[in-house]
Amino acid sequence: KDTGRFNESAAAYENSLSLKDDIFREMNLAFCYYHSGNNEKARNLFEDILKKTNKKQRENKSTNKVLLYTHFGLGCIYFDEKNYDNAILEFKKALWIKPTFAQAFFKLGEIYRKLEKYDLAIRNFQNAVRIDSSLYNIYVLLAEIYEKQNLFQESYDYYKKVSLIEPKNKVISKKPNKII
Predict the structure, then answer these.
(1) CA-to-CA distance for 75 and 24, rounded, in angstroms?
(2) What is the DSSP letter of 1?
């Protein structure tokens, strides 16, 4: 994973924050830390952002956007650390701010899939793809879940959707013809 650009961006954000305190820049800096693999620095900065914002600031639309991505960022960190209970809380907080945040539904689906809570995984994956159809690779995850549950017709239907959208999909090409 190439983290060079994130490290460069982090240095630029750190420099700009030394000139003027700004939660939007802090949020971007936290994501730079996250993407460069420094989860501890990212978590600390995300948590500082949440501590700093007061009720009046939370009513501001641009602050709400920062809070949305701050909760999402914390959720991603907890997800990476396999701290799924906290990740779920953070992704749900993001959805409370923006109920149509497809990526939060996707990450919740991923958590529930890993925990083998397939009904919750399916519901969250379906919400994500309903909101953002560009996340069609979720169909592969849904197909795999249905396959694990021996629901082969449902599995076939989702694999078929992917094969129509992306005929050379790597996962699909590895499946035997009788499944697809």
Answers:
(1) 18
(2) -
146: CB partners within 8 A, 6+ apart: 152, 154, 155, 158
Phi then psi for 137, rounded to 5 degrees? -65, -15
**104 within 8 A of 126, measured Cβ to Cβ:** no
User: Residues 106, 128: contact at Cβ < 8 Å?
Assistant: yes
Residue 82 phi, psi (nearest 5): 60, 25
State how far the Cα of 9 lies from the Cα of 33, in Å rounded to an integer. Answer: 9
**Global pTM?**
0.84
What is the tens place of the pLDDT at every residue in 99-134?
999 999 999 999 999 999 999 999 999 999 999 988
Structure tokens given for 159: 């694999």
* Residue 28 φ then ψ, to 5°: -65, -40
Q: Which of 27, 33, 31, 28 is nearest to 7 (CA)?
A: 33
CB atoms within 10 A of CB 174: 7
User: CA neighbours within 13 Å on the CB side: how many for 74?
Assistant: 23
Q: Report pLDDT digits (tens) over 41-92.
A: 999 999 999 988 866 566 677 778 899 999 999 999 999 999 999 999 999 9
Residue 128, classified by CB atoms within 10 Å of its CB into exposed (0-12), middle (13-18) or buried (19+), is: buried
